[in-house]
Amino acid sequence: MRRSWRHCTDERGIASVMAIFIMVMLLVTGIFLVRMSSTEGDIAYGSMWAEGSFFAADAAVNVGVDQVTPVNTNPTAQALNFTGVNLGAFTPAGTIAFSGTRPVPNSSMCTGTGYNTCGFAFFDYAITGTGTGPRSAQRTADARVSYGPVAQ
């Protein structure tokens, strides 16, 4: 019995076992850190593409605002014209639709300009801009725009 107990108290080889255990722990920690940095990079790229897509949608809305005129009174939504717009990897798209006219009868624009009995009108439009980017990132921006006052 004493002989078997003495065999268990022999500590030869424990240093190599401890070294292998520490190396395994360092390997697991290294894999975890590399995986975490890869995930952080994916999150950063995803937010960058989402933000770029939003700016493309905002650019589409601004192009729509530039195309608002009192002549454009077709109630059917029309595609916006993007000639000369280059946003790299991001693509703007959008529509503009005439919402109606808001008359403001018996009004004057400011003091001393005279009284207009026919009044003025505001032309209301709905603009929807959509921006798409890499890895199917997509954002949409809506705007309500009034053109006026236009004398009646």
In terms of topology, how is this protein built?
Blueprint: H1 2-8, H2 14-66, E1 78-79, E2 91-104, E3 120-132, E4 138-151
Antiparallel strand pairs: 1-2, 2-3, 3-4
Structural notes for this entry:
This protein has 152 residues and is α+β, with helices and mostly antiparallel strands. It has one domain (2-151). It contains two helices and four strands, in the order H-H-E-E-E-E. The chain has a four-stranded antiparallel β-sheet with strand order 1-2-3-4.
Mean pLDDT: 83
Number of helices: 2
Radius of gyration: 34 Å
What is the first-to-last residue Cα distance? 114 Å
For the largest beta-sheet, the strand count, sense and barrel status come to: 4 strands, antiparallel
